[in-house]
Input
Amino acid sequence: MKNLILTTVLLVFCSSLSAIYAQVPGLEKGNKAPEISLPDPNGKEISLSSLKGKLVLIDFWATWCSPCVEEQTDLARLFTKFKNSGFTNGKGFEIYGVSLDAKKPNWENVVRSKKISWVQVSDLKFWKSPVAKTYNIQELPFNVLIDGKGIILAKNLHGIDLEKAISKYLTK
Amino acid sequence: MKRRISILLLFAMATSTLVSCFSPAQGQNDPWTPQQLLAPADLAKTLKDSKSPQPIIFSIGMQAIVKGSIDIGPAMVAENLNVLKQKLSKLPKNAAIVVYCGCCPFSRCPNIRPAMALLKEMQFTNYKLLNLPQNVKVDWIDKGYPMNE
Output
């Protein structure tokens, strides 16, 4: 009996700890992704937390980064494929594109030419952008996949690895 | 004995080829020499010392981040390269000049090669490329070196 009580107490303690850990903002898998709130091309502020409930890919990119621009075509394919899907940890898929551009016309031109239809935000501060520091970005492209509660599921996956990571959470 | 020497020579040649191929700071056809790479710590030290002669610093990338640098814009754009040419034409050939971009790793940067090639073509004798092999965030901002407001 004593053992049973001790095990139960331990289990409750561990589950509380993991729940607390998930609320801690950080950059590791299982942490809550730090909040971002930046203007879109029309100047309207859009926060990452406003996408709560969906599986979200935070895509850090810039028009001066050629691999990033090339990747937008693949992201468009994933966006179309998954945007209305159901996930075990979110309903629908969204991309929150954060551009590290410095010049607005460059950003707008590529958004237009690549027909990017998902959320796009930027403070147009290039590498001086505070989000580059917050997310400890070392190089572009860089991305973070989060669930409906904003918890980090994976980091810096591209191509087939990214698609597999998203598919993993699809409801059967 | 001769065979041993040949093997050793072949090994040395292969090693040197491999090293030059994978060197992050300079590729085989890059228009700069290792001596023309300026360490960020050295430039930061110069910038902090007002008594030290200051070089003329040109940002030939997306934004002039380094303190005191002049924003030219991406040197891959012909118009910007022409602006740089005009500014350089007013300087003596022995002027101390530093150029940098810092958008991307050196291997992918589209701006540093046209700018360094122009300096070479214009026969400047004292010009350097700021050694930002990863990017200006990692190699300058994160280190707390002086920045433009």
In short: Chain A touches chain B at residues 62, 64-67, 101-103, 126-128, 132-133, 137-140 (CB under 8 Å).
